[in-house]
Amino acid sequence: MSIRYFQALGSISAILIGIGSTTATAETFDYRLSHAIRAHQVPDERTGAFLADGPLVFRIVDGDAPRLEILDRSIPGEMVPVGEIVLPRLATSLSKDGDRLYATDAAGLDIIDIGDPAAPTILGSHAVPGARCASAQGDLLVVTRGYDGASFYDAADATALTLLSEMPLAAIATIMAFFDGRMVIGLGDYGFALIDIADPTAPILLDIQSPNHGFMQFLNVNGLLLMVTWDVGIRFYDPMTGSHATYLTGFDDGTRYWSADATADRVYACGGQRLVDVFDISQLPQLDHLARHEHLTGARDVALHDDLLLVNLNDQSFAWIEPER
Predict the structure, then answer these.
(1) Pairing mode of beta strands 299-305, 308-313
(2) N or C terminus: which one in the chain shows less Cβ crowding within 10 Å?
(3) Which of 90, 41, 101, 49 is nearest to 67 (CA)?
(4) From CA 288, how far away is CA 233, in angstroms rounded?
(5) Which has the higher per-residue pLDDT, 38 or 96?
(6) SS3 state of residue 121
(7) Do 193 and 205 meet the contact criterion of CB atoms below 8 Å apart?
(8) Residues near 28 by Cβ (< 8 Å), separated by ≥ 6?
């Protein structure tokens, strides 16, 4: 196996450490952006929330005013600006459902139409005190609100959200993931809640588990809950076993993971602000650690597209990792 590396706004020398019988070599490439990323041109600007979906990357940038930038990552080594829009808030969380993007900060959220990425428009801005994250599934919008639990809205009309219900929770409600008629909400370092949302006007709290992990991200992977954690690696749970979420398997070598992306048979986990681990999940509960990409200084987000891994780095640049096919 050999790995090729590309980096925008700079070069990167990297090593892949093989696991088991895997051997690897590394090649170095130096690519420059055809269009420089604005946050690099203006040192006083800082980036906030980041989300990649298909060929597009969405990120919040704080300059003279907070704004959403939409970039095209289709060409390795290039991030081509597609569109942008000034926002009323510096969002700390982004989520996407269909042609809508939900940008959230502690005071509320903006609902943005990205059907035409070159001309994004704000459909509605809403005050939701204490908002942490917002995520939608069709017309159902769920906003976690820290110690105030979670609020459930009908978002069919983005200009006027309809409150369906509210649910108090035992600790700080933060990240979330949807499943078939259910959802999981992270409760800070306390644990997580499993909720039946078949009727969002009367959601039912099925279970609270208290594994006391530092959750960073939840993903629905093949109907299973992938937990990306700060302190116990990655963990898989089955959220559909009766009224409980059942632990299946995990990996923990002390790495502090920040984020992950997944396909049907692979998980790519970004950890320690310096590496990306690759796992085979085709035979769960068997979880095989296949490879480790190191020396990605400042790595904080990872996103896959067309077998090309995009790594978002803290210095506001990006690195691409392309495993040999």
Answers:
(1) antiparallel
(2) C
(3) 90
(4) 13
(5) 96
(6) strand
(7) yes
(8) 5, 11, 12, 13, 14
Helix, strand, coil % in the chain, rounded to nearest 5: 0, 60, 40
Quote the DSSP letter at residue 163: E
**298 token code pair:** 């400042």
Altogether, the residues listed in the chain come to a count of 325
SS3 22: coil
Could you report the per-residue pLDDT of 160-192, keeping only the tens digit for each?
A: 999 999 999 978 899 999 999 999 999 987 889
- Which tokens in the block code for residue 136? 């939608």
Question: Who wins on pLDDT, 75 or 156?
Answer: 156
Helix or strand run (H / E) with residue 40: helix 38-41
Bridge partner residues of 146 (DSSP): 173
Q: Which alpha helices (H) appear in the chain, and where do they start and end?
A: 38-41
Letter for the amino acid at 262? Answer: A
310: closest CA among 51, 83, 117? 51
Element (H, E) at 39: helix 38-41
Distance CA 144, CA 104 (A): 10
Percent of residues, the chain, with pLDDT higher than 70: 83
Write out pLDDT tens, residues 135-150: 999 999 999 999 999 9
Read off the pTM: 0.83
Distance CA 290, CA 303 (A): 18
Taking the CA atoms of residue 163, residue 169, residue 175 and residue 180 in that order, the dihedral angle to the nearest 10 degrees is -70
Under DSSP, the state recorded for 271 is: E
The Cα 41–Cα 38 span in angstroms is 5
pLDDT at 32: 26
Q: Which residue type does 240 have? A: M
